[in-house]
Known about the structure:
The chain is an alpha/beta fold. The protein folds into two domains: 12-144, Rossmann fold (3-Layer(aba) Sandwich); 149-298, Alpha-Beta Complex (2-enoyl-CoA Hydratase, Chain A, domain 1), CATH 3.90.226. The protein is 34% helix and 23% strand. Helix 10 links the parallel strand 11 (244-248) and strand 12 (263-264). Helix 6 (168-178) packs parallel to helix 9 (230-242). The longest helix has 14 residues, at 131-144.
Amino acid sequence: HYRIENHHGKVREEHDYLGTTPNGVPVWLDSRYVRADLKITTGLIEPHLMAGYSGGRKVICPGIAGLDTVKVWHGPRFLEHPRADCGILEGNPVHEENTRIALMAGCDFIVNVCLDGQRRITWVGAGDMIQAWQEGVRFVEQVVKVPVPEPLDVVVTSCAGYPLDTTWYQAVKGLTGALPIVKQGGTIVLAASLSEGLGSPEFQRVMAENPDLKQFKKRILGEDYFIMDQWQLEELAKVVERCRVKVVTHGVSPETLRRCYVEPAASVEQAVADCLAEYGPQARVAVIPKGPYVLPYVA
């Protein structure tokens, strides 16, 4: 029999302090892992909107990191860097920092997998935390990168259904995945169920407190403003700075969507028709059926 225990990131007493990184991130990690004789981690490798790719080092940071660590590592000092983006590892400070933190804790062995659209395992890697994970990243890169010849007027996308489209917090991942190929001033049309609403109370609070996203950016760049999950609003701000967003959902009301910095749409068809009426019949449109799992780029 195996004992299963939960990690409580907000309970500092359950973490060990391992020091501070050269970039000023205090490293608090779950004491049970830090003190373990044998450290084996599991993970899923897929594109990630901040760290480039998930899996590998990410199960340690942020997976079992304390809030004091996460709020700095997930803060604007790292997230506002232009390389802190989906599919980017080289020069990505989010990836480089959580790799550094994971190495401070140590990891003896990893088992990571990749999945296809039907959630079937397509690749399994085991061994060294960095080398085995990098092999998985190379495999994923071959199947998720899709070139387009030029930026597009309209991108229609989704969050690939359950579980990523159950909340607005998670649905942001579908938007950021489409961002590399939409024109400045273009439109992303997102379909998501939002069956569980907007997300955590903290995420709802940070949106309620910051109706103006430009002011929000100024606040988080200050030293004394922090709300859990603010990093997802920071990612959403990058999207709405570049383009408009129309959302098709039955999970929340149109009034609620407007408070989320986006426009409600009755259907995908109507949203696209409205865009074509605005941009003209020569407008270029792309469809990404499963947004978070595709890395489109302008070739």
